[in-house]
Specification:
It is elongated and about 145 Å long. About 80% of the residues lie in helices and about 0% in strands. It has a domain at about 45-135. It is an all-alpha fold. The chain has helices spanning about 20-40, 45-140, 145-150.
């Protein structure tokens, strides 16, 4: 406790603030119940009967509260489980959609690659054909024609 210094001649009141606790409440409850039993206007047998009835009421009330709590916990568990299952189903669906999109993209990529290969092979074949045609024309010319055309371009001094 704290020490307080007051003037002896004047009246004073000390108020200390402290938080109550559950232990203090239960102690007061037990003391009050004991005092009530001691000063009860009934006989011992009547008091025991009344205590027995009240104990049964408290027991029934506690049993009802326990059942309510059990049902409440079960309901919350089932709700949480349902939400988890829904989220899992949603995630599975999203994964399946993404898998299908990837599969379609792979197929489209393969088709585009095949088309590009066909185009490239066609262009190579066209280029080879043009090269061969030019080479054949060059081979088909007589050698004399090639020499004349080169001399024709020269001037004599």
């Amino acid at each position: 406790m704290r020490e307080y210094h007051f003037d002896e001649d004047e009246p004073y009141v000390v108020i200390e603030k402290s938080e109550g606790s559950t232990g203090s409440f239960l102690l007061g409850l037990a003391l009050g119940a004991g005092m009530a039993l001691l000063f009860a206007p009934r006989s011992g047998q009547e008091t025991r009967r009344e205590l027995n009835r009240r104990a049964h009421r408290v027991k029934d009330a506690a049993h009802g509260m326990a059942e309510d709590l059990t049902y409440s916990v079960k309901d919350r568990f089932h709700e949480a489980r349902q939400q988890v299952e829904e989220r899992i189903d949603s995630a599975r669906h999203a994964v399946e959609v993404k898998r299908q999109q990837v599969t379609q993209a792979v197929h489209a990529g393969r088709a585009a690659a095949a088309q590009a290969r066909e185009d490239l092979e066609r262009r190579i074949a066209e280029t080879k054909a043009s090269y061969d045609a030019g080479a054949n024309v060059a081979r088909a010319r007589p050698r004399g024609d090639a020499a004349r055309s080169s001399r024709a371009g020269r001037t004599t001094e």
